[in-house]
Each structure stands twice: as structure tokens, then as C-alpha cells.
């Protein structure tokens, strides 16, 4: 079991659907991250939140919209996705963005776009 | 872009043997971390080595860091079938740049340990 919980574990959606991915941690971490991972590739950073504020956006298309409603929750809203967006979406958290502490990852949401 | 390069890309060994994976990076770093990922799961942190450290141990893991060569190695001793996974190095840059706070992952090594 991981300390970062992601829901749902699997999601299949059409290109016109709107859905959201959810991530939750209760370790008191103030930095949270979204990564995208394609098969047999490393995770690619998408967004970083620090103290509930967006601090890094890695030029992610606007069809991905992050939200951090409080220090324990991180959402990723999806709209009008493309087939190439099919991937494993990983959430992670750490004490602070600038600390020497590691990131803790959830098990991800495997997203398939039809 | 991913600055870390790892080799080998894949490694297949027998149980009990040692496994060594290497990682190279391009920019100056604050620390370097190693993560393991089992198939279909998230990443699990293994070990962190700071830029002023040269070697670190944790159980059967030994990590070295050579900042002059911008490289690191992960040694797993007496491997077990349960060590079968993908292993990624990840670098955290020094303060001051636009990348500060980001973790950049290498391409990874797929390790298979045969019973």
C-alpha cells in the first residue's frame, strides 16, 4: 500500500468526455506533482504545486487542468483528450519542492482514450 | 527533456548475482535519487545521495556518485527474484535555475532476476 492514493485506478474515456483524476495524501506534504508515463519510458513532469499554488507547468496542453483544493488533495481535470494522451498518470508528493526529501508516488491512474 | 541516461537499458541475471546500473547526467545537481518501479505500480524511493557525498549504503543497495564525471551507479548485491523491476535515477538541480524544485528522471534500466 502506498501513502499517496490515486483514483480511479483505470479510466477509459472518449475524446469528447470530461473526467477528473484524484490524488490524496495525508503526510502533511506541501508539494504535490503530476507526472505522465508512457510504457517503458520514465515519468515526465507535468505540474508542480507548492503550498497549494501552481509553481511549475511544463507547457502542458490546456486540455489538462490541474487543481489543488487543499494541502491534501490534487486533481487533474481532463477534457477533449487525444489518443496520444493514453498513459499512466502518476501523482507524487514531498515535504517541500526544495527539500532533500524524496517524492512519494501513488500507483497511478491508467488512462485510455478511445 | 530527460537529462539522465542509464545503462544498461536491460539487465538479466540469476538470483544471487549482483546487479549494477549506471546513470549519467548533464547539469550540476543538488542530489541524485534512485527509484524502483514494479510493473503496473508507482515509483518507490530507494536511496538519495547528496552532491557532497560519494557513497551511500542501504541494506543490499550501494550507490556511488562521481560529480566530476556526472555519473552514479546503483549496485544491488545478492539479487532476488523480487528485485525484478525498472530502476530509475533522478536528479534534482541546484538552486537558482528555472528547474529548481524539479526531479528529472533517467531512461531507466529494466532488471530481470531469474530464480
Commentary on this structure:
The complex is a heterodimer of chains A (114) and B (115). With 114 residues, chain A is mainly β. Chain A is 0% helix and 56% strand. Chain B has strands at residues 5-7, 10-14, 19-24, 29-37, 43-50, 55-58, 61-66, 71-76, 85-93, 104-105, 109-114. Chain B starts with a strand and ends with a strand. Chain B is mostly beta strands. Chain B has no helices and 11 strands. In chain B, a hairpin with a 2-residue loop joins strand 6 and strand 7 (61-66). The mean pLDDT of chain B is 91. The chains are: A mainly beta (114), B mainly beta (115). Chain A binds chain B through residues 2, 4, 6, 31, 33, 40-45, 48, 50, 55-56, 90, 92, 97-98, 100, 102-108, 110, and chain B through 2, 4, 30-31, 33, 35, 40-45, 48, 50, 88, 92, 95, 100-108, 110.
Task: Present the secondary structure layout.
The complex is a heterodimer of chains A (114) and B (115).
Chain A: E1 4-7, E2 10-13, E3 18-25, E4 31-37, E5 44-50, E6 53-57, E7 64-70, E8 73-79, E9 87-94, E10 104-105, E11 109-113
Parallel strand pairs in A: 2-11
Antiparallel strand pairs in A: 1-3, 3-8, 4-5, 4-9, 5-6, 7-8, 9-10, 9-11
Chain B: E1 5-7, E2 10-14, E3 19-24, E4 29-37, E5 43-50, E6 55-58, E7 61-66, E8 71-76, E9 85-93, E10 104-105, E11 109-114
Parallel strand pairs in B: 2-11
Antiparallel strand pairs in B: 1-3, 3-8, 4-5, 4-9, 6-7, 7-8, 9-10, 9-11
Task: List the keywords.
heterodimer; A: 114 residues; seven-stranded mixed beta sheet; four-stranded antiparallel beta sheet; 11 strands; 56% strand; globular; B: mainly beta; five-stranded antiparallel beta sheet
Amino acid at each position: 500500500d502506498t501513502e499517496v492514493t490515486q483514483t480511479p485506478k483505470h479510466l477509459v474515456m472518449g475524446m469528447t468526455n470530461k473526467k477528473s483524476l484524484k490524488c490524496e495524501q495525508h503526510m502533511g506534504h506541501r508539494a504535490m506533482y503530476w507526472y505522465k508515463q508512457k510504457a517503458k519510458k520514465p515519468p515526465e513532469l507535468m505540474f508542480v504545486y507548492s503550498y497549494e499554488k501552481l509553481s511549475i507547468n511544463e507547457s502542458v496542453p490546456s486540455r489538462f487542468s490541474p487543481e489543488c483544493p487543499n494541502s491534501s488533495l490534487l486533481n487533474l481535470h481532463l477534457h477533449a483528450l487525444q489518443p496520444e494522451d493514453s498513459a499512466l498518470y502518476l501523482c507524487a508528493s514531498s515535504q517541500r519542492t526544495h527539500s532533500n526529501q524524496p517524492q512519494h508516488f501513488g500507483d497511478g491512474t491508467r488512462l485510455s482514450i478511445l | 527533456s530527460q537529462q539522465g541516461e542509464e545503462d544498461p537499458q536491460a539487465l538479466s541475471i540469476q538470483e544471487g548475482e549482483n546487479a549494477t546500473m549506471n546513470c549519467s547526467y548533464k547539469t550540476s545537481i543538488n542530489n541524485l535519487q534512485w527509484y524502483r518501479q514494479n510493473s503496473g505500480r508507482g515509483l518507490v524511493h530507494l536511496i538519495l545521495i547528496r552532491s557532497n557525498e560519494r557513497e551511500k549504503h542501504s541494506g543490499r543497495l550501494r550507490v556511488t556518485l562521481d560529480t566530476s564525471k556526472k555519473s552514479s551507479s546503483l549496485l544491488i548485491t545478492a539479487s532476488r527474484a523480487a528485485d525484478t523491476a525498472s530502476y530509475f535515477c533522478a536528479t534534482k538541480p541546484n538552486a537558482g535555475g528555472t528547474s529548481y524544485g524539479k526531479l528529472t528522471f533517467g531512461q531507466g534500466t529494466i532488471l530481470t532476476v531469474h530464480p
